[in-house]
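Record 1 of the preview.
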Amino acid sequence: MKFAIIAAGEGSRLKSEGIKTDKPLICLQGEPMMHRLMRIFRQEGAEEIVMIVNEEMPQVAAYAEDMRTTLAQEGCRLTIVVKSTPSSMHSLYEISPYLRDDRFCLTTVDTIFSETDFSSYMQAFRQDTDGDGCMGVTDYIDDEKPLYVGTDEEMNITGFYDTADRDCRFISGGIYGLHPNCLTSLGRCIRTGQHRMRNFQRQLVADGMRLKAYAFPKILDIDHATDIAKAETFLQTHPHSS
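->
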């Protein structure tokens, strides 16, 4: 199975708050976030990792190049795309040619979760061979603009919403397990001039894709300097898998 990492954002909010390190290289528990994801993906049997890096972050690209050799020695190919994009949805579009031949799991570089929870999620994703996607969701809400996820009693996804007025329990956690046929919806979004990953997710529902929600107890992301401390505290109680 393939895995993918979106690391093409500017990290502007962190920079405005005095964080000089490029977001993908911010360390949590002494480990750069992009390295943490690659390590976890390898533990889950990644045969290829596809990563997009902002062209204004040469240090991130250089770090990824160094990781390419290490991963190759472990039997995993690392494909690196260096390009700045206007949104995560456009970043996915740029790496989509490398994701068309197998199911894949995609996250943004600042997605923080328990490794044990992620392993259980991946097991559920692998077992759902008839579906088009399995999205990581959480009822832990600490986001400025959360994307609420509507589900039925069997955790089938019924919609994605900007507000919780539909009595949605979960929000999107930024973890996407997808079948390559979902990339057809992505192409439609690009052709019609849409932006943002949430619009891609809405298009998946509109196109009748069969999406499951998988609930994580907690998923965090790193948008502000204070989020780094929150993530450190979280990971102290959720150490590396052996």
